[in-house]
Write a structure and sequence with these properties.
heterodimer, A: about 110 residues, mainly beta, seven-stranded mixed β-sheet, four-stranded antiparallel β-sheet, about 50% strand, B: about 120 residues
């Protein structure tokens, strides 16, 4: 099973700052990685897929990068609505798919 | 408008069974894989199972392998999750999720609101 490890577990920042979230895979997953945002009481929302492609309707301040085993989600100039939990997910090992454990982005 | 609606959750005793259903609309159902993802209270996301567009390929998380069975009926635009030998650790909100990519299981672009499964005596 491919394990995804996200860091940090919690990130405390202020609106207007830049957030950098990390996801590391236990083996190479090429660029078959997605990022999701989940707010309390809501279903997750797809932000980024294939490591760096923004999903429909996602603001340009969200960007993804990386390949192989190391991936980064960057959120430039944080807005109040960006504070949420973020998950990475890989699909290279279908029919087994895995998520990371999540990073909580909280207001400092 | 794409919609996926889960049903069938509830309170069940350990060791018993439950069948979840997912009804989809607003897209060409037979073109896409469908998945079940769960979230235990206060915990992260866990992919549970997924089934390809034609039902010919499917998979399960290690935690449910041998106990859960996924199936689909393209004529009814529906996916099912048969859950047997339920355990307290299966307690979670179960989301039905549409895949983003035609044919190839990949990413999750439309999520239902979830159906709650509680396993307790």
């Amino acid at each position: 099973e491919i394990v995804l490890t996200q860091s940090p577990a919690t990130l405390s920042l202020s609106p207007g700052e830049r957030a950098t979230l990390s996801c590391r895979a236990s083996q190479s997953i090429s660029d078959y990685l997605a990022w999701y945002q989940q707010k309390p009481g809501q279903a997750p929302r797809l932000l980024i897929y294939d490591a760096s492609t923004r999903a429909t309707g996602i603001p340009a301040r969200f960007s993804g990068s990386g390949a192989g085993t190391d991936f980064t989600l960057t959120i430039n100039s944080l807005e109040p609505e960006d504070f949420a939990v973020y998950y990475c997910q890989q699909r290279i090992s279908w029919p087994l798919i895995t998520f990371g454990q999540g990073t909580r982005l909280e207001i400092k | 408008e794409v919609q996926v609606v889960e049903s069938g959750g509830g309170l069940v005793q350990p060791g018993r069974s439950l069948r979840l259903s997912c009804a989809a609309s607003g897209f060409t159902f037979e073109d896409y894989a469908i998945h079940w993802v769960r979230q235990a209270p206060g915990k992260g996301l866990e992919w549970v199972s997924g089934i390809s567009w034609d039902g010919g390929s499917f998979g399960y998380a290690d935690s449910v392998e041998g106990r859960f069975t996924i199936s689909r009926d393209n004529a009814q635009n529906s996916v099912y999750l048969q859950m047997n030998s339920l355990r307290p650790e299966d307690t979670a909100l179960y989301f039905c999720v549409k895949d983003k990519v035609v044919v190839t299981p990949a990413y999750f672009d439309f999520w239902g609101q979830g159906t709650l499964v509680t396993v307790s005596s």
